[in-house]
UniProtKB/TrEMBL annotation:
Matching Pfam families: DUF1706
InterPro entries with a match to the protein in the record: DinB/YfiT-like, DUF1706
Protein name per UniProt: ClbS/DfsB family four-helix bundle protein
Origin: domain of life: Bacteria
Length: 171
């Protein structure tokens, strides 16, 4: 997906977030940590993953704006250790209830959208505007935003549906 402007990106983020979040309306709170063989993540892990990534990227942004060196994905993990990074997200949010985690996720999405609102079109669509975006892929900022919000919001919807179908079938 290529966006023509900031508003298109924000509309897509909000729309895909809303559709993804709605899927959790019918997740039984007492089972949202339940692992099933057919789906690689629990609903808790899906929410923790998303909340973790959104917050991590906003930390990169704030650190760069503060003049600090940004080490991606984090000082503790290298790009070939993403599984361990994800596990750190799951652990960080493990003690939260479904409702609490959904609220944290909602607040993270709101902060994400507020951040995007403050960016200029040039910052969003021109490569190399942030040091932390300069990688082998050399993506402009909008691509980082899309790949860590819209894309997984959409990709996790079939997973959460499959998870729900399986737990309701096996009750």
């Amino acid at each position: 997906m290529n966006y023509q402007n900031k508003e298109e990106l924000l509309v897509e983020i909000k729309k895909s977030y809303h559709l993804f979040d709605q899927e959790f309306d019918t997740v039984p709170a007492e089972k949202f940590n339940l692992h099933i063989e057919e789906v690689d993540k629990t609903p808790q892990e899906m929410l923790a993953y998303q909340t973790g990534w959104l917050n991590l990227i906003m930390e990169w942004e704030q650190s760069e704006l503060d003049g600090k060196l940004v080490i991606t994905p984090s000082p503790e993990y290298k790009w070939n250790q993403l599984g361990l990074l994800y596990q750190s997200f799951y652990t960080k949010y493990a003690e939260h209830s479904l409702d609490e985690l959904r609220l944290l996720f909602k607040n993270s999405v709101n902060a994400w959208c507020n951040w995007i609102e403050l960016l200029t079109e040039e910052e969003l669509f021109t490569p190399n505007m942030r040091k932390w975006t300069v990688t082998k892929a050399n993506w402009p900022l909008w691509k980082w935003i899309h790949i860590n919000s819209v894309a997984p919001f959409k990709n996790f919807r079939p997973k959460i549906r499959k998870w729900k179908k399986n737990i309701y079938t096996n009750i």
